[in-house]
Amino acid sequence: MSDAAIDLDDVQGTILRGYRVNLARHFVLTITDAAATGKLIAALVRGDNGLPAITTAKRIVPKPAVFINMCFSASGLAALGIGAAQLASFDAAFRRGATDPASAATVGDVGPSAPQHWIGGLHHGAQVHILLSVWATESSAALESVSARLRAAFAGSVTVLYMQDGAELPDSTVHFGYRHGIAQPTIIGAPPRKRDAPDAQPPVPAGEFLLGYPNAAGGTYRVLPAQLSTNSSYAVFRILEQDVAGFEAMLARYAAETGIDTELLAAKILGRWRNGNPLTLAPTAQGRRLPDAELNNFDFVSPDPATDDTLGLKCPIGAHIRRNNPRDAAVIGTDSTHHRILRRSMPYGPQYDPARPDKQARGLIGYFINASIRNQFEFLSSEWNLASDFVKSATGPQGPSAGNAVHNISGEDVLVGVNDPASSSFTLARKGPKGSANRTLRGFSRLVTTRGGVYCFFPSIKGLLYLAQLAAAGGAASSPAPVASGGRAPT
What we know:
Layout: H1 13-16, E1 23-31, H2 34-46, E2 66-72, H3 74-80, H4 84-87, H5 92-96, H6 101-107, E3 130-136, H7 140-154, E4 158-167, E5 233-242, H8 244-258, H9 262-270, H10 292-295, H11 320-324, E6 342-348, E7 363-370, H12 373-385, E8 425-428, E9 439-442, E10 448-458, H13 461-472
Antiparallel strand pairs: 1-3, 1-4, 2-3, 5-7, 5-10, 6-7, 8-9
Helix pairs in contact: 2-13, 8-9
C-alpha cells in the first residue's frame, strides 16, 4: 500500500487533521456491558439515534460545530472480545499501559507524577477502557448538547470514570505564555493543513502514524486481527499540570543571577520566543511575529557558518523544541524522522493572573499520536527529554575551537523533565573551547506534573465497526499467533 492511497474516510480525523477548535471535553469510560457497548460504538460510527458520528479525516464543508473520536486501552479491547493472542501483536508499550511501573519510570512519571497520584480513577489502569473526546469549534452550547446526548447513550453500556474539559487561551498560548500548535510533521499522503507552518524537514512516511503503511525504516506496523491493522494508530493521552507561578519565579531568579533578560531566558528554555519566533531565526530579540510560513522553516545544522547552530549558541541544545525535534542534528537513536509524534493538545483550567495568585489546576490535556508508542513517545520522553547526553559529539562549521556539542548540554528538559533540585541543570552555550565559557543554571524544580495518562489505540472506522460486531457477538475464538510487524526494532 502506498502513502498516497490513504483512505481518509477510514481514518479517525484527529490523527491526520487535528481540529482548529476552542473547546474540548474528554470522557474516560469503563465498560459495564460489552454487548451494549458494541451497539453504542456502532451508533457512534453511523451517527444513529441522534448521536454525532465519529469524525473521519475527510474534509468536512462547512466546518461542523463538533468533532468526535474514540480510542481504547488494551484492557478495553480485551473487554470487547480481542483475545490474548491477538493483543500480543500490539505495541508492547500499549499492552503494558501508562500505569505500569516500567512505563511510568521510562517517561518520568515518578514522585508526584507517579500513577498512584493520578486523578479521576486514571490510576486504576485496568478500569480505563475507552476515551471519547469531543471538540467544539466555538459554542459551549453545542458541546453541552452533544454531551447530554452522549451521557444518555452511555446508560447500560459504559460508566463515566472522569471528565476533563479543555479551552483555548487567548492568542493560542499555553499557560506558560508560549504560543502553541506551531510545529507538526508533514505526513506523506495526508491532507494539507492550510494554516500550519511549513517544516524544513523532509515529509514523514504515513507509516510513522498509521498502521498498515510503510514507515521510515521501510517496515510496516500491523496487528491482529486484520480488521484493526490498517488506518489505525496509537496515542498517549496525558493530563499535564503546569506550575505557572513556579515557572515565572524560576525565570525571575535565573534572569537576576545571570543578567539575562527574562524573556530571552524563557526563549532559551523553549527554543522559541513566547510569540512563536524560533531563536534560530531571531536569536537576539523577539521582534514581530514571523509569518506562519517562516515559523517552522529552519534547521539547527548548516554548512554555512553564518547560519549553523550545531553547538547551540543561538538555540541551546537542551531547549525543549530541540530535544523534541532535533531536526538534522546528530543525536542518539535514529534520525528525528523516526521519532516524530503528532500533538493534539489544548490548555485546561483558568488563565493565571500573577496579580491574583491562585492554586487552581491548569495545564495541557490531549493526545500524542504515533504508530509505535515505544519507538516514538517513550523513546522521545526517555532518551531525548530525560537524558543529558542525547546529542552526539560534533563540531560545527565554526571549527573545533568553537567547542564540542557534548559540552553544551546538561540536565533534563527544563519544561517536562523530572528536575530534582539537587541535580537539575540547564546549559547556556557560549563561544569557547569545549564549553569553557558556558553558563550552567542549577537547582530548579519540576514544572509539569502528570495528573493522568492512558496508552490508547485509535481503530480505523472499519475497525470500530469490527469491534462493535465482536462485542455484540460476545467475543471471538482464539486467534493464531501474531506475525512480525515488519517495523523497526525498539531503539
